[in-house]
Amino acid sequence: MLSSSTTESRRQFLRQAGLTAAVATVAGPAAALPFSEPLAAMQNENQRKLGFAIVGLGKFATQQMMPAFKDCKHANITALVSGSPDKAKKLAAEYGVDPKNIYNYQNFDSIKDNPAVDVVYIVLPPSMHMEYTLRAAKAGKHVLTEKPMATSVEDCQKMIDACNKAGKKLMVAYRAQFEPFNLDAISRIKKGELGKLRQITADHGRIVKPTEEPAEAWRVVKKLAGGGSLMDIGVYSLNAARYLTGEEPTEVTAQEFSDKSDPRFKEVEDTIHFTLRFPSGVLASCTSSYSIQEVKRYRVFGDKAFLDLDPATDYYEHNMTIGTKEGDMKVSLKEGNQFAAELDHMAECVLENKTPKTPGEEGLKDIRIIMAIYEAARTGKKVKL
Amino acid sequence: MLSSSTTESRRQFLRQAGLTAAVATVAGPAAALPFSEPLAAMQNENQRKLGFAIVGLGKFATQQMMPAFKDCKHANITALVSGSPDKAKKLAAEYGVDPKNIYNYQNFDSIKDNPAVDVVYIVLPPSMHMEYTLRAAKAGKHVLTEKPMATSVEDCQKMIDACNKAGKKLMVAYRAQFEPFNLDAISRIKKGELGKLRQITADHGRIVKPTEEPAEAWRVVKKLAGGGSLMDIGVYSLNAARYLTGEEPTEVTAQEFSDKSDPRFKEVEDTIHFTLRFPSGVLASCTSSYSIQEVKRYRVFGDKAFLDLDPATDYYEHNMTIGTKEGDMKVSLKEGNQFAAELDHMAECVLENKTPKTPGEEGLKDIRIIMAIYEAARTGKKVKL
């Protein structure tokens, strides 16, 4: 880990690099390089890292995402925001974060004065994403937020507007869009390996255990989660259908079932099945459930072959099969750290002043469709998008 | 193979055995046995076989179903009905069928005078099932018909009524309900191995090639097939959802896509996705397509485990996996001849005067739901069942 003083001066430079092209391109001997390659203009590896403040130190943040920074080329944890000072201190020590850079939810806005922080990564329950995005943008920070982006289309729009107004990047953490097997699937589809796309099935499920695992309790509280399995994991089925087709759906039908005698589903839905229609004619049938054994899979059917990924959206150990009339073929591919790729992409977008691959608009699209799915399930009618 | 004279006298006896309890139970030394075990009353293996007339000698009949008779204990091919005399003669020689027992569609009704025929097995395009069931019942024969049972609910009802009136058995050839892996799946679900059932996904697809394979041409002609992929293969997804839950669905939503510029889909649908709701809350999302590489699979999700069968409804080589939180487990099971089991069941129902496991009423249920699926797809509205 870097010492905090080195980190601070580096951050200061890099933060400015993200602001305007001029700052980056005049910074080193390679100033004549086109702006799209400012990284090459950096003088050393250390200078290439942007500082990330992690807002919310829950299970996902601490067990999956934070450890991934060690594989990042351009991203580093430089601040922590938590309501638990002890947890924050312990993690700060573990990750070499200057204890001065620990914030709580009350003093979070003072992060604006901290040049060690370039990007605020929001890992809070979805209903809080809007507030913290607005506060981060106001503090002059770029924003990476977990999915689902927010709990309403209106909140998503506010987040987009706030970051635009502040001239800051806004990205939604769709990790699967940075995962090698998923990228390979997209590439094979684009190349026509499956022939003409016809249908997709995608299933995401897991058992939610709010009582056994208190860290999960918020997931069944509508005010915090915004909804049930659809918001939390069904969004993987939905997002996959969109990135696999490369199209936006035009219509949706849906059905929901939640056992209201189960205390977990008093406020949020358990199981919801939805079918999306895409302009090319592809139908995507997706499922989402909080009461089935873990599943994270999809299959894409073309008229020449199918592509099966099961699991498709796990952290590791993806399993791809291509099926043709000649038989099934397993695809070997090197696993990659999707979290590190995602974090580096955010950093690069800041450094190179690029629009993220999964910007706020991407998150908004999913939320808009999710709301239509809820409406279709409620009314029993196909909803046009 | 038996000589035709032996066959005829055997048939005569067995045909009568099927008519009334008395005939069967007074026929041998074991007449005191309860009627449910008349097979035990038979004096030798030969006497246990009923005579089947195969109506329609297409690819399925000649390549899959007819060869299965060699594994039957109680069923034998004794007559053929075809519009191609040459094909019929060749097959008659191959299967040891008396050439006298070859019929065409014009003289079919004279089968009533042939004691070698107990059961008429209709393997014609679905729109013809009604007519031949009525003619067979009128000829005093029991009826086994391929699925889908017919092309309208009204036709199904006519078939049921005709067989009831004639005092003949009517069974629909749902081979998957006689297939060992599917039976094992049902048994595991009933035993609670998956916990509480939550959802099912079932996908059936194949490329229909009416020009490359002329024998398939009828499948894309609405007047003959009644519909497209849903009638032909989607019915496997539907029937599976029903036999796996052991419940009848109460509501359905659906979406359809057919490329009308593709000559195959001018009259019948290509791809249709439908979601069934069952009283217990199980949602079943099913797909059916005529333009994707072959798929015949389902997965049943409980709150403790899932059961995956892929393929689920093939002729052979089924592949079962049980997935729990401890991991996935392959299930080894002996493949069985589902066709032979189905044919023997039909014969046993006649011999023992039992209602078939998949009677006309079972076929009618599927047709009624199929019509609701079409309506839901057409209107974009959930249809109550």
Automatic annotation (TrEMBL), chains A, B:
Protein name: Gfo/Idh/MocA family oxidoreductase
Residue ranges of every copy of the Gfo/Idh/MocA-like oxidoreductase C-terminal domain listed in the record: 187-385
PROSITE patterns in the cross-refs: TAT
GO MF annotation list: nucleotide binding
Residue ranges of domain Gfo/Idh/MocA-like oxidoreductase N-terminal in the record: 51-174
InterPro entries: Gfo/Idh/MocA-like_OxRdtase_C, Gfo/Idh/MocA-like_OxRdtase_N, Gfo/Idh/MocA_Oxidoreductase, Glc-Fru_OxRdtase_bac, NAD(P)-bd_dom_sf, TAT_signal, TAT_signal_bac_arc
Organism annotation: Hymenobacter telluris
Any Pfam family: GFO_IDH_MocA_C
Superkingdom to which the source organism belongs: Bacteria
